[in-house]
Design brief:
With about 700 residues, the protein is an alpha+beta fold. It is about 25% helix and about 25% strand.
Length: about 700
């Protein structure tokens, strides 16, 4: 581990720069920007999972006050059918282009009116007739349509003689684990304000990457990207759900082109649930063989996830199996199952979060079978190099996370026998899980202008979705330039600032920081004429392999304590403790906020979150906050998070990402704690009341 640099702006805890704007209501989001002659759109969505639109009767709606018109597949402007994202062509972008209904919630019409109230009323009067066709929503590893998932993130693991190692194992655990479809549930619903001017397209959009959205819009409209201008200065949360080009900005661009006015579309919460992407359900089978002393001999991880035929996507559930534990034989198999669902998207800790639930539950089951402490089992199987890649880890401080976490949690005093601790009628248990998440950088552009008054304007196409990116990047720029943070003025959230990776994959801050650091270096080396402003611009596309050759990962260990009432099935998480190795920490205050928020999200996944679909129609039956349960303040216990000293040598500043590592692993720690409390293993999430309730205990509590 490299020595920690001298303290400066990086490493100091500072509150958010934009905090006063947000708490006073001065921060403007996508639905807040005032524009003259603004019209409003309202979506009408399909009520069947698969079929065709037979007719759209707009006669009543068109006669209603304030209605400007109705767009559907018959009269909407045409888009380029080949548009897509980095996975390839994406049919989910082709809104109002054809009569085919690929999933429940597919937009089939857009009503445009003078006010949102008029648009909503007219949308309710629209009569859409659809012909339903048979649909398929059943996920399973054995599904006949299952196919190998894309290997864009790397090949499957196939090391050693799996069958021989399993045969030689003293203990073999083979169990199946399932996680449900989950919604992102950002505070701000998806929204966009869109207009055309002299052939250029402008949008104020709620997204996680303005530049990538501008690229998709340019492809859809077959125009130069420089003619598309997307701003996302303030975003009220995303968690991956706003990483793609969403329905409001696409439909808004269609309506604005058709009616020649700016158009704003703001989704209702129900529309967000049914029309925007979610975390796909997974079905996973783990087979683990181990010696009597707990040394792993073989790990096989098969995983399936739901996929829409419209677009490619990877829910990389098996990635941690290639990284976390040493074993002579490791084999993974990831398959995608095309179903009649909306295209899934990354949700905080994509792949790693459902994958860690399966892997870390199975590892716990091995410890149970061997009567071995779960922390000790994990410590005995730490690899010296990547167990599949064979590459050295650039930094790997997982053992430090486990040992320090166990010390702080008081793990040594734990009786590992299930149902061994009681408090009156309550059963008390504790659990642990470790996890990893891939780290790195992607190409980005940054410009720094040295102003004549001694300040610096830093421009980078970053996105702050509530993570504190502005504040972190200000500190990075200040230290890179050798000035105080008060000298830095930062501009983000605008596609005109140049190409930049979005807020996703725990690679946003590292990618933007790398670009800023290089721009500062260039400015220092070429200060120019001090009589006027001087600008240095850097594109890191050709620099991203500056220190290749090692596994770059972040790591964590999460400990949980739960109290379970077997008479009611209620599970209460009492304590959560997370120790994280995420490289050099830019802002400890905001970093802790990130990982604590991630742990709360993992708690919500463990105990509450589950999208339920009607088998007959394919529609969500709980597509709102009344039916889709998420953790509330009353559910959140004493949460402690801290960072072990770490430094990423593959990064010029020692940074790594931390946006998603908090979520991955937490659900497994809680599920393992529920087993310790009750003696019953839960292999299906969420750990609902009805799944915990013990027969015969509902009427009479134990003394």
């Amino acid at each position: 581990m490299s020595p920690e640099p001298a303290p400066g702006a990086v490493g100091a805890s500072r509150p958010r720069i934009e905090g006063p704007l947000k708490v006073t209501g001065a921060a403007r989001y996508a639905a807040d920007v005032p524009l003259p002659d603004l019209a409003h759109g309202w979506m009408v969505t399909a009520t069947t999972s698969r079929g065709r639109v037979r007719d759209v009767d707009a006669s009543t709606a068109l006669a209603m006050p304030g209605v400007l018109g109705v767009l559907d597949h018959r009269n909407a402007p045409r888009l380029d059918q080949g548009a897509g994202n980095y996975f390839g062509p994406d049919g989910s972008l082709q809104l109002l282009q054809h009569e085919v209904i690929p999933y429940a919630g597919w937009p089939v019409a857009l009503v445009v009116a003078e006010t949102p109230e008029q648009a909503r009323a007219a949308a309710a009067a629209l009569r859409v007739t659809c012909d339903a066709e048979p649909h398929d929503l059943d996920l399973g590893l054995e599904h006949p349509a299952a196919r190998p998932a894309s290997t864009a993130f790397g090949p499957e693991a196939d090391t050693g003689d799996l069958d021989a190692e399993l045969a030689a194992s003293a203990v073999v655990v083979e169990e199946r684990y399932r996680t449900p479809e989950e919604s992102h549930c950002a505070v701000e619903p998806h929204a966009a304000t869109v207009w055309w001017d002299s052939g250029d397209l402008y949008a104020v959009d709620s997204n996680q990457g303005a530049f990538s959205v501008s690229e998709v819009l340019a492809a859809l409209w077959s125009i130069d990207r420089e003619r598309v201008h997307v701003r996302s200065e303030h975003v009220g949360g995303g968690f991956g759900g706003k990483g793609a080009c969403g329905p409001p900005v696409i439909l808004g661009s269609l309506a604005s082109r058709r009616f020649g006015r700016p158009v704003r579309i703001v989704m209702t919460r129900a529309q967000v649930f049914e029309t925007t992407s979610s975390r796909p359900p997974t079905d996973q089978l783990l087979t683990i063989g181990a010696d009597a002393d707990g040394r792993l001999r073989a790990v096989r991880h098969r995983a399936a996830y739901a996929l829409s035929p419209l677009a490619e996507y990877i829910e990389a559930c098996t990635e941690q199996t290639k990284v976390l534990y040493a074993a002579p034989a490791i084999r993974t198999q990831l398959v995608a199952v095309p179903l009649d669902v909306l295209p899934p998207a990354s949700m905080r800790g994509p792949g790693a979060t459902p994958g860690s639930f399966a892997l870390e539950s199975a590892i716990d089951e091995v410890a149970e079978r061997l009567d071995l402490d779960p922390v000790e089992l994990r410590l005995r199987n730490q690899p010296a190099v990547g167990p599949v890649s064979g590459l050295p880890f650039s930094t790997r401080r997982l053992v430090a996370c486990l040992r320090e976490g166990a010390r702080r949690f008081g793990w040594a005093a734990r009786d590992r026998r299930p149902r061994s601790r009681r408090e009156g009628a309550l059963l008390i248990g504790s659990g642990v899980a470790t996890t990893s998440f891939g780290a790195g950088v992607f190409p980005s552009t940054a410009s720094i202008t040295a102003e004549t008054d001694g300040t610096f304007t830093v421009s980078v196409g970053a996105s702050d979705i509530g993570t504190g990116a502005r504040t972190a990047l200000t500190a990075v720029a200040a230290d890179s330039l050798g000035v105080g943070t008060e000298k830095i003025r930062i501009r983000i959230g605008d596609s005109d600032l140049g190409a930049a990776w979005g807020a996703g994959g725990s690679r946003g801050t590292t990618s933007w920081s790398f670009a800023i650091t290089e721009a500062a270096k260039k400015l220092r080396e070429n200060p120019g004429d001090p009589a006027g402003p001087v600008t240095a611009t850097v594109d890191t596309t050709t620099m991203i392999d500056f220190r290749p050759g090692g596994e770059r990962q972040t790591f964590s260990a999460v400990f949980a304590e739960v109290a379970v009432d077997p008479a009611t099935g209620e599970v209460r998480v009492r304590r959560l403790l997370g120790l994280f190795a995420v490289g050099r920490v830019i802002n400890p205050l905001l970093a802790r906020s990130q990982v604590v928020g991630g742990m709360v999200m993992g708690l919500s996944m463990a105990l509450h979150e589950e999208s339920v679909r009607d088998a007959r129609t394919g529609r969500l039956v709980n597509g709102d906050f009344a039916g889709y349960h998420i953790a509330s303040h009353a559910d959140v216990p004493d949460v402690e998070a801290d960072f072990v000293p770490d430094y990423e040598p593959q990064d010029p500043s020692g940074f790594n990402g931390l946006g998603e590592i908090g979520t991955a692993g937490t659900a497994a720690a809680i599920a393992n704690a529920v087993w310790h409390a009750t003696g019953t293993r839960h292999r299906v999430l969420p750990v609902r009341l009805d799944r915990v309730l013990e027969p015969g205990r509902a009427a009479v509590r134990e003394p």
